[in-house]
Amino acid sequence: MLSGLFGGGRSKHNPTTMTKELITPWRRIVLPAFGAPFSLRSIQNAAMMAAHSPDCDVRLIYILEIPRSFALHSTMPDEEGHAQTVLADGVEEARRWRLDATTEVLRVRHPVEGLAAYVDQNDIDLIILGARPDEVRGLPRELMEELFERAPCEIILDYIANEQ
Fold first, then answer.
1. Considering only CA atoms, which of 143, 138, 61, 150 is closest in space to residue 107?
2. CA dist 153 to 129, 135, 141, 149, Å?
3. End-to-end CA distance of the chain
């Protein structure tokens, strides 16, 4: 019985007010990409969440894993070019949803450790991960599982089943 939740009788709250009260005001949202384009649905979801938090900072980051045989700031033209393309495509999609997002290439030795450190150092509230069963877009499944275990913030997994 729903009315019991609101102190008996009819609720004084309308559904719109209740929904706004229940939405977490996110301050900083990160959408990571690793070796593949961003999930377009994840960008759409970030835009919808940011719309409820006027001062929300949305960041599209590309995780560039640097092998230990190279210095962390070594030039890697092919990988860096791909990262810039993925970020540019993400920004274009964000604009479609009227989302103002910043971009960054995150150079790391280990993707999950690097992302967890980034989240912690930048006081990130939420990570939105996009995934598909064929792992064409988004983070690889093993990395997502490890991230779920280690992330110091909330995570939303936007999993797209049977998408072609």
1. 61
2. 13, 23, 19, 11
3. 41
Q: State the average pLDDT over residues 73-79.
A: 92
Residue 38 pLDDT grade (very low, low, confident, very high; cuts 50, 70, 90): confident
Do you know the residue count of the chain?
164
Residue 80 burial (10 A CB sphere; 0-12, 13-18, 19+): middle
Helix axes 40-51, 77-96, angle to 10 degrees: 50
Predicted confidence (pLDDT) at residue 120 exceeds the cutoff of 50: yes
Helices 141-150, 111-121: axis angle to 10 degrees equals 40
Contacts of 25 (CB under 8 A, 6+ apart): 52, 53, 56
- This prediction has a pTM of 0.77
